[in-house]
């Protein structure tokens, strides 16, 4: 029996083998990916692409911008298309969740097109893997929400606080992506130090942590979980936090290896803590 007294903020999980399996797979696979980042086994994109052992040997490559579009566009299409599928989006909570997912991935696509600055390539299989993961998680979030329609609402309603948390996450993530894009532009134009023109980021929460954009992405995913209040959404948010924590620690270690005087006060993800 579902322990509603212990978890009063979640819907009773539906009797769906698919959703149950995806909850476990998402949490475990993302947490394992975070551990892999800590061990130096990096996903082949961003600044870690060139340090992946054997990466690119005979592999099909895309321009980085094209690769990131492959990663984000399918989830955007799925979130937007959910409104056109009869019965897929039932009730205000489901509508808000699908809208938030569409906003999240539309922002990602627009950032790829107009904000981020790329210089290099990305393995096709990496782009497809990321895109498939985002697509499956988006579809499963919407499906799990659909299955909760008609069930008794959780005793603790987190819908509108979740909207606020999501808004903070997406705004903070965009702001720090913008700061990173300005940094890359300055490095490209001014011959910045470090590998491939990288500089130590500054401004905003970059004064306290290496990856504030990841911190706000985690906030956004917990916003999804609060809007949804399904077990799958919570598992996905927790797994995302574990993965991005591992990648943040790997990023901080990378900066330490490239800059001799990297400030010890700057943490990886959470100010003053991690």
From TrEMBL:
One cellular component term from this protein's GO annotations in UniProt: membrane
Annotated TM spans: 16-38, 127-146, 158-175, 205-225, 231-250
UniProt-annotated location(s): Membrane
The 3-oxo-5-alpha-steroid 4-dehydrogenase C-terminal domain, residue ranges: 160-274
Keywords: Membrane, Transmembrane, Transmembrane helix
Keyword Amino-acid biosynthesis tagged: no
Signal peptide annotation: none
Keyword Protein transport: no
Pfam annotation, one family: Steroid_dh
A molecular-function term among this protein's GO annotations: oxidoreductase activity, acting on the CH-CH group of donors
Biological-process GO terms, alphabetical: lipid metabolic process
Membrane topology reported for the UniProt record: Multi-pass membrane protein
Main location: membrane
Family designation: Belongs to the steroid 5-alpha reductase family.
This protein's name: 3-oxo-5-alpha-steroid 4-dehydrogenase C-terminal domain-containing protein
Organismal lineage: Eukaryota, Viridiplantae, Streptophyta, Embryophyta, Tracheophyta
